[in-house]
Amino acid sequence: MRVRFFLVRFVLMLLVVGLAGSRAAWAHVGSKDVFEQVDAGPYRLYVTVRTPTVIPGVAAIEVRSSGAAVDAIRITPLPMTGEASKHPPTPDAMVRSVSDPAFFTGNLWMMAAGSWEVRFEVSGAGGEQVVSVPVPAVPLNTLKMQRRMGLTLGVLGLFLVISMAGIVAAAVREARLQPGAVASAERRRRAAIATAGSLVLMGLMVWGGAKWWNVEAASYSADIYRPLGVEPVLAGNQLDLKVTAYEPADDLRERRWRLNDDFLPDHGHLMHLYAIRQPEMDAVFHLHPVLAGAGDFRIALPAMPAGEYKLYGDVVHANGFPETLVASLTVPEGMAGGALSSDDAVGSPQPLSRGMLGSSYTLPDGYVMVWDKPETVTANTAYSLRFRLLDSEGEPAADMQPYLGMAGHAAFVKADGTVFAHTHPQGSAAMAAVMLANGDGSGATPMDMQMDMPMHAAPISNTVEFPYGFPASGRYRIFVQMKHGETVETGAFDVEVQ
Amino acid sequence: MASPAWSASQTGVLAKERAAAVGAAVPWYVWWGVLAVTSASIGGAWDVSWHRSIGRDTFWTPAHMAIYACGVIAAVICGYLIFATTFGRSAEMKSASVSVLGFRAPLGAFIAAWGGIAMLTSAPFDNWWHAAYGLDVKIVSPPHTLLILGIRGVAVGVLFLILAAMNRAAAEGGEAGERSFKALQRLFLYLGGLMVGGQMFFLMEYTWDVSLHSVSAYIAMAIGLPLFLALLSQASRYRWAATAAASVYTIFVIGEILILPLFPAQPKLGPVFFPVTHFVPAKFPILILVPALALDLLWQRTRDWKPWRIALASGIVFIAVLTVVEWPFASFLLSKASENRFFGTIYFDYNSRPDGIDRLRQFFRPSEGFALYFGLVRAAVYASIGTWVGLLFGRWMRSVQR
Question: How far is the C-alpha of B146 from the C-alpha of B121, rounded, in Å?
Answer without folding.
Answer: 8
